[in-house]
Amino acid sequence: VEGLNYLARNAGKKYFGTATDNPELTDTTYTSILENYEMFGQITPGNSMKWDAIEPEPGVFTFTDGDVIAELASSNGMMLRGHNLVWYEQLPSWVTDNNYNATGLTEVIQTHVTTEVAHYKGQPYGQILIHVRHAWDVINEPLNDNGTMREDVFYNTLGTSYIEIALTAARAADPNAKLYINDYNIEYVGEKSTAMQNLIKSLQAADVPIDGVGLESHFIVGEVPTTLVENMQAFADLGIEFAITELDIRMELPETAELLEQQKTDFYTVVNACLSVSQCVGVTVWDWTDKYSWIPSTFPGYGAATPWDDNYQRKPAFDGIAIAL
Ligand code: XIL
């Protein structure tokens, strides 16, 4: 089988990519598979570009770990997806402790977004097409599952305007980057997806820069939504692009041959959905091997959510992706 990114490029000018994280990069078996543009054309840092990692103290920026990921992407010609700029989790306490009024928090957001986006501007330098597609998850997980705005420090201080503040600063800092809002449970037709569409429409009506929506896609084996394509089309109809940004499909352990077969079908279904809508620019798995998946620690009793097992063997899920492509 050819590499998944090779297949994605040929099948529809899309990319196949993965999240990765700094501690994993000392594992040379891991990096020997990761650093192959034919397999992965895009990289997302799993943690090292988040606020707590990048700006742990006000105005103090620590880019070292993020730079390692950016350099890895750049040196292999891979697109970099910056992740993420404004999110309610993995925030340093100096941001969350309600120290700031609206004016102060606006400046805090502007400084953070401007400095980080400017630092990674135009990376990677590998290929022009890829450069153009350099993307940022500017806003991460702004919505509750019922479609209302999440009441985090940003919303509670600034209302919905924090989204405009961040997007505007990101556009000014890197006019070529695709600016995204990323969330989960917006992959299927329902009130949260409708709320995201309404948010996009209101930003567009106010001339706020917004290029795309990230559909995280943390699914469960046998429970992949049936309305993926219909839902994607609704986002495409808004005149924006979108991406599958954090795909994994977890199962209740222990894994069985039957569950692995269902997982193959499920990966096929998701990748095939992206291929069927031209505005879907690519698919990113939230790491590619079970060895480094975030699932077991976050969803106790669940695991085996990625296309490679923890001994780096390709699972049936890998074939499901390859067949779709
Ligand atoms: C996860 C990382 O994978 C973990 O290592 C970390 O402990 C918590 O965050 N949605 C997102 C990602 O947008 O940033 C999250 O990543 C997974 C859920």
Which features characterize this protein?
325 residues; alpha/beta; TIM Barrel; binds (3S,4R)-3-hydroxy-2-oxopiperidin-4-yl beta-D-xylopyranoside
Give a structural overview.
It is built from 14 helices and ten strands. The protein is an alpha/beta fold and 325 residues long. It has a single domain, classed as Glycosidases (TIM Barrel, Alpha-Beta Barrel), CATH 3.20.20. An eight-stranded parallel β-barrel has the order 1-2-3-4-5-6-8-9, surrounded by six helices. The longest helix is centred in the C-terminal third of the chain and has 19 residues, at 257-275. The structure holds (3S,4R)-3-hydroxy-2-oxopiperidin-4-yl beta-D-xylopyranoside. (3S,4R)-3-hydroxy-2-oxopiperidin-4-yl beta-D-xylopyranoside is lined by residues 46-47, 140, 216, 246, 294.
Fourth-level CATH superfamily:
Glycosidases
Count of DSSP helices? 14
Low-confidence stretches: 128-132
Element-level helix/strand string = HEHEHHEHHHEHHEHEEHEHEHEH
Number of domains: 1
- Strand order of the main beta sheet, please? 1-2-3-4-5-6-8-9
Strand content: 15-25%
Task: Tell me the structural class.
Answer: alpha/beta
| Main pleated-sheet profile | 8 strands, parallel, barrel
Radius of gyration: 19 Å
CATH overall fold name: TIM Barrel
Helix content percent band: 40-55%
Distance between the terminal alpha carbons, to the nearest Å? 11 Å
**Oligomerization state of this entry?**
single chain
Ions and ligands: (3S,4R)-3-hydroxy-2-oxopiperidin-4-yl beta-D-xylopyranoside
Tally of extended strands?
10
Query: Given this structure, which CATH class is correct?
Result: Alpha Beta
Shape: globular
CATH architecture: Alpha-Beta Barrel
